[in-house]
Design a protein that fits this description.
The protein has helices at 7-12, 53-68, 93-97, 117-131, 147-157, 172-184, 195-198, 205-208, 225-235, 248-259, 303-308, 313-330, and strands at 15-25, 28-38, 41-45, 78-80, 83-85, 105-109, 136-140, 164-166, 190-193, 214-218, 239-242, 293-295. It is an alpha/beta fold. It folds into 2 domains: 7-71 and 303-330, 2-Layer Sandwich (Enolase-like, domain 1), CATH 3.30.390.10; 78-295, Alpha-Beta Barrel (TIM Barrel), CATH 3.20.20.120. The protein has a 7-stranded parallel beta sheet. The chain has a 3-stranded antiparallel beta sheet with strand order 1-2-3, with helices on both faces. The longest helix is centred in the C-terminal third of the chain and has 18 residues, at 313-330. It is globular, with a radius of gyration of 19 Å. The mean pLDDT is 96. Bound molecules: the ligand O=C(O)CCC(=O)C1=CC=C[C@@H](O)[C@@H]1C(=O)O and magnesium ion. Residues 140, 142, 166-167, 194, 216 line the site of magnesium ion. The active site is at residues 109, 218. Its EC number is 4.2.1.113.
Length: 334
Amino acid sequence: MVTDLTLSALLDTARVVSIPTRTRFRGISEREAVIFDGPQGATEFSPFLEYDDAESARWLAAAIEFGWVRPPMAHRKTVAVNATVPAVAAEAVPEILARFPGCRTAKVKVAERGQTLADDVARVQAVREALGADGAVRIDANGGWGVAEAFAAIARLAPFGLEYAEQPCASVAELAELRALLASAGIAVRIAADESVRKAEDPLAVARAGAADLIVVKAQPLGGIAPALRIIKDARLPVIVSSALDTSVGISMGLHLAAALPNHLLAGACGLGTVALLDGDVVTQPLIPAGGELPVARPTLDGAALDRFQASPERTRWWRERIERCYALINLPG
Ligand SMILES: O=C(O)CCC(=O)C1=CC=C[C@@H](O)[C@@H]1C(=O)O
Ligand SMILES: [Mg+2]
């Protein structure tokens, strides 16, 4: 970690932006983010608004690391990414997939509050039809199911061919129980842990409990690329690197994490294509997938776009105060 970055030096480079989403995603229709310009390049701080300071402080540590510390050596120049399909109606699926050119893997949101299993079935079926038999389809329930509900839903969705189910239940104990139930029923759908890694007190508990087949790893929530790599090393499970509906700046942090992984640890296409879900960006060449891949690059900030998406004075003040509180929590040495 850097030792000499003062709060005022950090705040001097901060630009708060608010970018509309093209489709509501996890209830969000405006994505707010802070963009900093560090000596290593642009970096992003964008914890969701409801996250408390202790959790958000890890996102700030990640932003500082990416802007001020040289990233680890890259093992690849491009990273394959998945299309991310929000909990839309089945009819909207082709239009969503069209935003992810060349992506042969799609992650489909399921278990959305207010919807039914029939909605999930219709959406997953539409994705399978659009991708064809050789595409890969995975689902993400964001912990929205209980064990019995998850078992029934996965049994119903498995015939469409599922690569894995991401965080079907909320707790590690539930994931372990579900994983055993699926195995004993001969349903070959792997379990991926996301929230059990990025929001857990102990990100390794899920691996230790044998409750998942792979882990979804996000750089910002885990405190940066170096802490994420330490967790990956200790978890000893295959990894999908994902993001948090970031601008291309935050996405580039995820790409550098994915690029740092040796091939045998990367479990498939990464969840880094979500700039396609935003209606704008802050860089000159937005990281929209081409041929199903993204380049491992540091984007160049677009000053006009930073101005265009500049947040209101009230929101800017809110974010600057949040940065101050989080900065106080991360205890930079020196
Ligand atoms: O993994 C992807 O395809 C995209 C990122 C993604 O799905 C998410 C981003 C941000 C918040 C989360 O609700 C969600 C996830 O749960 O993985
Ligand atoms: Mg997830």
